[in-house]
Amino acid sequence: MVALKFLTAGLLLTRASIASPVSLASVRSASGCGEEPGIALNTRITATLPSGRTYLFWVPPNYNPENATPLIFSFHGGTRTPESQADLDLLTTPFFNSDHIVVYPSSGEYGESNGRYWQGAPQVPADVDDVGYVLEILDAVESQFCIDTARVYATGKSQGGMMTNNLACDARSSARMAAFAPVSGSYYVNVTGAECTPLTLEFDCQPAREHIPMFIFHGGDDNTIAYGGGSRSASAYRISHISLQRGRRAMD
């Protein structure tokens, strides 16, 4: 909870690194500039995509369709909801966030209990493409609002932190998002037993550019997703401060 209070500051700090010569190859001008959004400001609103999936979003009270506005994606944890994530991160509170539009995607529901989990979690089928879903949201938001396409960020807690990392490691999304701030992330890798070696595990990570700004939070006393990684739910996950490299994540 304490770490989440620093998310806005973290995202503002990572924004500074974007001033370096980092190419966001797929950046496009947002087509929503100059168009009145036709929705209430400073209000949480649920929207439905053509695919049928939904998401929650919030537009700050001082939004001006003539000015390019930064955008934050915030991802809920496993079994949680967009509404609970908004209650947790406080990014829909003007005191903490006065100038960023915030989007809260909604994970799919899986298993006998219809639990809510993100792509990459043990409960989720391998063919689920939540990255594609997020990019569908991004297209929709850019068409409705005046978005600063060079300042699109992602953050999330627990499995939401994992989803944030998925976006950083995917060439499609990392080409359109500037920086990433996972909190207490659960980074699952599908190995078990003796293969579960968090310090040396490698997995596929193919970002669209060489340098990916990351601001990573994780508490050493986390009893749910341990800072040092280990076995959980018959899968392995690795938790640590990480730096992204093409094709792997390396421990700092």
From TrEMBL:
Xref: InterPro entries: AB_hydrolase_fold, FaeB/C/D
UniProtKB keywords: Carbohydrate metabolism, Hydrolase, Polysaccharide degradation, Secreted, Signal, Xylan degradation
SUPFAM superfamilies: alpha/beta-Hydrolases
Signal peptide residues on this chain, from the entry's feature table: 1-19
EC number: 3.1.1.73
Subcellular location, record wording: Secreted
Primary localisation category: secreted
Top EC class of this enzyme: hydrolase
GO terms for MF: feruloyl esterase activity
GO BP annotations listed: xylan catabolic process
GO cellular component, one term: extracellular region
Catalysed reactions listed for this entry: feruloyl-polysaccharide + H2O = ferulate + polysaccharide
Stated name of the protein: feruloyl esterase
Organism: Xylaria hypoxylon
Lineage: Eukaryota, Fungi, Dikarya, Ascomycota, Pezizomycotina
